[in-house]
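User: Let's play a game. I give you a shape written as tokens, and you guess the letters that built it. Ready? Here's round one.
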């Protein structure tokens, strides 16, 4: 996936910083734009590190810091989280237990971002995502060689920058899966403190990974 994106010169926004380790994913833009890009990159990296450390409270704090952050009708930070949440709901994965953590992360999302992003985040927190995202993740994990390129292009085509930021979240989630698989350590967060502030429709998933 990384090699394909580099060959296709499809690196932009959070996808660029996620794959290249560059904390400024903007080729052009004002000083403010670059500052926001660095904030997105740094916060996403701290979220990833908190999950690796199994630090429940820090992971929630960093995820909430991403909400509403960045350009776009659906801000980049929100799109990144949607992609990450999608991977964290893959069945039989070492991080499947993070579903409750996703719900805790979005407990305050309604006050942190706009209504469109909140709808996407709250649904993704229960494993409900666009079909092209679900297909991309499943093809990457279980599909034949290069079978994932078609759904990848469909995801990248979402919005102006949303697709790239969603793929950045997916890449982050898949890397986390691989690291936990290699370590053999299951996710064991302190979920007794989770508020479980669920949206009323959370028990009625339409599409699960």
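Assistant: Ready! My guess for every position:
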């Amino acid at each position: 996936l990384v090699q394909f994106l580099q060959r296709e010169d499809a690196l932009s926004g959070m996808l660029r910083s996620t794959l290249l380790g560059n904390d400024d994913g903007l080729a052009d833009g004002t000083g403010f734009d670059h500052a926001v890009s660095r904030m997105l990159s740094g916060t996403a990296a701290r979220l990833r590190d908190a999950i690796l450390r199994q630090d429940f409270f820090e992971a929630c704090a960093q995820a909430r810091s991403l909400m509403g952050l960045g350009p776009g009708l659906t801000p980049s930070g929100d799109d990144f989280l949607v992609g990450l949440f999608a991977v964290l709901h893959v069945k039989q994965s070492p991080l499947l237990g993070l579903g409750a953590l996703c719900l805790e992360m979005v407990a305050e999302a309604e006050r942190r971002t706009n209504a469109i992003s909140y709808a996407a985040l709250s649904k993704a927190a229960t494993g409900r995502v666009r079909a092209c995202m679900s297909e991309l993740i499943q093809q990457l994990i279980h599909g034949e060689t290069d079978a994932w390129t078609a759904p990848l292009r469909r995801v990248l085509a979402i919005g102006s920058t949303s697709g790239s930021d969603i793929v950045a979240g997916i890449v982050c989630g898949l890397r986390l899966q691989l690291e936990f698989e290699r370590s053999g350590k299951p996710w064991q967060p302190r979920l007794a403190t989770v508020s479980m502030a669920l949206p009323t429709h959370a028990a009625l998933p339409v599409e699960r990974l």
